[in-house]
Amino acid sequence: MTGSRNHREVALSFGAVAAEYDRGRPGYPDELFDTVERLWGRSLKEARVLDVGAGTGIATRLLAARGADVVAVDPSDGMAAQFLLSSPTLPLVRGDGDDLPFHDASADLITYAQAFHWTHPERSVPEAIRVLRPGGALATWWNVQDETVPWVRARAERMAAALPDRYHGYGGISAHTSHFAPAGLAVERAVLRWERQLTVEHVLTDLTSRSYLASLGPEERAPVLAVEREAMLAEFPDGVVVEPFTLDVTVAVKRG
């Protein structure tokens, strides 16, 4: 991790590309929420859920659709504005996982969809434990593009070459979740596989929302995206892409 100020600035850079984030980022299959319920041992229906780092509400909306009593939490002005456009009926609280603006023992489940790595676990894990009720859980998950597929690996190599100081994959998931068990949480983990079909332009919209490009200005992003458009159209001349993911999910339960 880079210094805290730079880390926070990169995290907040998503606000400038919030519309692209909402349009481009993948959602999550129903199997994810089935898995969360199985690993937790409880139903999402009527559970009090805090979706931290909610962004534009992609996971928040899906949690609400499962019957959860969900509140979104996010620090970014841009993300909050897009959330209110995309999810006008759902509640939003401004804040982040390192200092949750909620009472002790007030939540059944705290979720981090693509977001836990933006926290400082030495603060965010104790905060989660404080806010969770006994038997409540902290759930983290990440959609990870499956680099065992040759074209996905080739794209990652292009990004690493073009942005050597900015591009980082999700190789550190185990390091992020390794903080749960030492804090006394009972940890379960699963890895799912799924895919989505989309256009090349949709892929580029998704890329624009990634931190390594979102933290650049539009004029700096443009040549990287142009190279990527050319490479993707060479790989998929009909403009239709099937994008494979592994979905890494960890559920850590507060005992008692």
Report on the structure:
- It is a single chain.
- The chain is of the alpha/beta class and 256 residues long.
- It is 41% helix and 25% strand.
- It contains eleven helices and seven strands.
- A seven-stranded mixed sheet has the order 3-2-1-4-5-7-6.
- Strand 2 (69-74), helix 5 and strand 3 (92-94) form a beta-alpha-beta unit.
- The longest helix has 18 residues, at 218-235.
- The chain is globular and about 55 Å long.
- The two termini are 33 Å apart.
- Residues 1-5 have low confidence and may be disordered.
Please sum up the structure shown:
This protein has 256 residues and is of the alpha/beta class. The chain is built from eleven helices and seven strands.
Strand and helix map with partners:
Blueprint: H1 4-12, H2 18-24, H3 30-40, E1 48-52, H4 58-65, E2 69-74, H5 77-86, E3 92-94, E4 107-113, H6 121-131, E5 132-145, H7 150-162, H8 173-177, E6 186-199, H9 200-208, H10 211-214, H11 218-235, E7 240-253
Parallel strand pairs: 1-2, 1-4, 2-3, 4-5
Antiparallel strand pairs: 5-7, 6-7
Helix pairs in contact: 2-9, 7-11, 9-11
Give keywords.
disordered N terminus; alpha/beta; seven-stranded mixed beta sheet; single chain; 7 strands; 256 residues; globular
Biggest sheet features: 7 strands, mixed
> Topology as H/E string?
HHHEHEHEEHEHHEHHHE
Shape category: globular
End-to-end Cα distance, whole Å, is 33 Å
| Proportion of residues in extended strands | 15-25%
Q: Would you report the number of β strands?
A: 7
Backbone structural class: alpha/beta
Strand order of the largest sheet: 3-2-1-4-5-7-6
Question: What is the mean predicted local confidence, pLDDT?
Answer: 92
Radius of gyration: 18 Å
